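Researcher: Sequence of Diaminopimelate epimerase follows. Predict its structure.
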Amino acid sequence: MSTRIAFLKGHGTENDFVIVPDPENAVDLPPAAVAALCDRRAGIGGDGLLHVVRSAAHPEARSMADRAEWFMDYRNGDGSIAEMCGNGVRVFARYLQRAGHAAEGDLAVATRAGVKTVHIAKDGDITVGMGRALLPEGDVTVSVGERDWPARNVSMGNPHAVAFVDDLADAGTLFTPPPFSPPSAYPDGVNVEFVVDRGPRHVAMRVHERGAGETRSCGTGACAVAVAAARRDGVDPRVTGLPVTYTVDLPGGTLVITERPDGEIEMTGPAVIVAEGAVEAEWLESALG
Ligand SMILES: N[C@@H](CCC[C@H](N)C(=O)O)C(=O)O
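Model: Prediction complete. Tokens:
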């Protein structure tokens, strides 16, 4: 790598990202480069990385290019690939707006979990059509130390295990991924959410993210939690014909999640760009060893 690489830093409810604009997919980002950029001490720091590429220029997104000009090539902070990132897609849209690639209103974004429609509102918040949740049957258990809880298996394109607990402190330090069983439940790993009630249609959560550790927020996790809470509360908009909205408090802020009668889920929250700069090529080369 011989040139400096432009980057920005942004966050959505304090789920933070290194943003690498690369319309023609010319920047090589192997997992070690992503992990170095996301390193909070030796790099820029982030829970994940948003590689901003034109769909037509990326082999994983070419088939979506007629519906979405831009592809969110999302990576976790450890360099692994994930299907979807709910906070990330809002920050991705904010970057496109700031760069003049998108205006207020609706924007289609290609992701590994399909094309998502993002609405950039005048008031600053961004709403994302997150698609439908899948809730495969089957008993899953997550544990912390000696304690374990039944968990609801929810897919938002990426995997989640949602456990309702008495106190968010029950989740402990979350320095390591909470073990789950059976091991076959999540062959590719899982994001684990611990949830408490705050009031009617109002919950709070902590999350241990696959590939990142405990984060201050997770958008797909908040959607999984809202759907799991609704089913636990006996509410299914596909049956009642009425939308249901949950407010989800996270350590880094609040997200509002609505499930519509057709099962489509909308998530609304903030997205902020905080800085921009350039990565020294020599530093990145030395970080790659
Ligand atoms: N923070 C994200 C989720 C990022 C991906 C996740 N760690 C995974 O591996 O599935 C969000 O806001 O949804």
